[in-house]
Structure formats: structure tokens, C-alpha cells
Amino acid sequence: MVAISKVLESNLLARSTLPSGLVAVFAGATAGIGEMALKAFTKHTLKPRIYFIGRSQEAGDRLQQELKRLNPEGTYNFIKTDMSLLKNVDAVCADIKSKEKAINVLFMSQGTVKYSTNTSEGLPLITAVTLYSRTRLTVNLLPNLRQASSVRRVVTVMAAGHEGHIWADDIPGRKIPLRGARGHLCTALTLSLEDLSRKAPEVSFIHNFPGAVDTNLIRRGDGIILQVVKYWFRLSMSLSRKWLPAEECGERHAWLCLSGRYPPKEVGDGVNGVASDTIAAGADGKRGSGAYSLGWDGESSPDNVVKFLDKYRAEGMTEKVWDHLEDEFKRITGTTSI
């Protein structure tokens, strides 16, 4: 485990060791883990320019004021949209790309637990938000990430380390049993990040598991069954005292964005994060390989996960997942990226 003291020590060095004016995009940032990470990132960076995306204008207005108080020298732009639709993702990306040549950090935590619900674009909502939306956002902004002269990083928050069986004939997850959905999504996310790392070796890609964090992912209108699950989970975590405190959650996720522990495959010139005395092993088990599957404590997924994914790599599953994603992008938007 990477101790929280080490995380804080690294974060406190960010202002003095990283360039000013880092540009960051946070999706799913108006509540929960995204909001916690956004606040910590704001606090530890010098004159950041941040675009944060969410569905609630009220929450966006509140956050703009809070971020300005945390770091008056930064610039904060709220974008209100529903990221479950790829057409909206494209519109957001076109707007950001028109304003920024280079982007340093892309942080994504948008998600839902609504099962058996479809979007108007013909995708299951849960995979539309967690897999398709995040991947589309990444490929659209990848040229800008590659242009950055310092930190170049993508962080996607889901359940790394819990990769499981993937249904190759049903990547959208239309018929997958509920108990298999998390493992399926995790594997698809990790493999897609590995493919992106090959396409953009100067960018580092992180898939992480946040741990037990008390968020508002399950909302009031999500149905009585999910409400029961929500309160049972909260009760069990409270009784076992396994909650990760909100402040620690934010600090750890800002650290994932800023630490040099997770370098890209090709480091190149410039600063690639706050200097670290340890380089993490990637999802393939090789140190510094550019695509990382991480637990809540910042440690790389264990050998059994690496070996599990090796089987899929040998079967060409990485390419199958990527080909499917591009096919869906073309079906829905007409292009593989904007």
C-alpha cells in the first residue's frame, strides 16, 4: 500500500515542481469521486485551467465558487451535458479543442448503476456511460494530450483489479447477467487503455479502483431495489469502518493525476509528474509500460490479474474490443473520432 503520508508529500510538491497552467478535463465531476478529485487537483496545482463536466447546472455553479476559493489563480469552466450520448461527448470535445491546443490530464468518473436501460443511440446506459463515453472522450482529446509538454495522463475510475470474464459476442452488455457486468466492463476498460497506450505511447493511462467511497451514485429516482442496495452497503461499510474518507479519496486521485510513479511507455523530454522513487508495474506486469490497473491504494493489480488478462491478450481480445468500439462510434457518429 502507498501510505497516505506519501501521497500527501507528493501532492504538496506539485506546485513547486510541475509547470503552471496545467490544463485538465474532469468528466463526472459535480459529485462523488470526481468532485473530490477535482477539488484536490485544484488545490495542488499552480494556475490550472480546468474544464469540468456534469449534468447539474446548480452543482456546477456551486463548484465554480468553491474551486475559486480553493485556488483563486485558476480558471474553471463548467460544461453542462449528458455524457451518456456520444453526440454530446463530441460537442464537448469540439468546444474544448477550439480553446486548448494541449491538455495535460483527462479524468473520468462518470457512471451509473441503472441496469436494463438504453440510450437513444441504442447502447445500454451502463456501458454507454462507463465504456463508450469515456473511450470516445479519450480518442477525441488524444491529439491534445499528445501535444502537452509536461504531464500527459488519462485516469478512468471504475474497478481495476476486478477484471473478469468478457463476453466477446456482447461487448455492449445487452444480455450479460448482472453479476458478470462489473468484471466484463473492467476487462474491456483495461484492454482498451492498453490499446490506446500503443497508439499514444507518450501518454500514460490509468484504470483504478477507488475503494469503498460514500458517493451519491445511486440516486433517488433509480428505483426501490437500488435504494435498498445503497442503504445496505452504507450500513455494512459503516459497521465495518471500511469507508475511505472523502478527503483521502480526493488526495489519492489527484496524486494519480500528478505523480511520476505512473509514466507513459515513452517518457520523452519534460516533466512527467512529481518525481517518484518507485515506478509502478503496468497492467501487463512490466514496470512503466504506460497502461496501469491500480487498486485503491495506488498499487498495481496482482499477478493473478496480469495472468488473467494475458489469456485475453493472446486471444486477440484487445483488438476485438477496439474494433467493436470503433464500429459503434462509426454507427452512431459516422466517424471514429472528431
UniProtKB/TrEMBL annotation:
Coiled coil: none annotated. GO terms for molecular function: oxidoreductase activity. Pfam families: adh_short (PF00106). The chain crosses the membrane at residues 20-41. Keywords: Membrane, Oxidoreductase, Transmembrane, Transmembrane helix. PANTHER family: ALCOHOL DEHYDROGENASE-LIKE C-TERMINAL DOMAIN-CONTAINING PROTEIN, YALI0E05731P. This is Uncharacterized protein. It comes from Cylindrodendrum hubeiense.
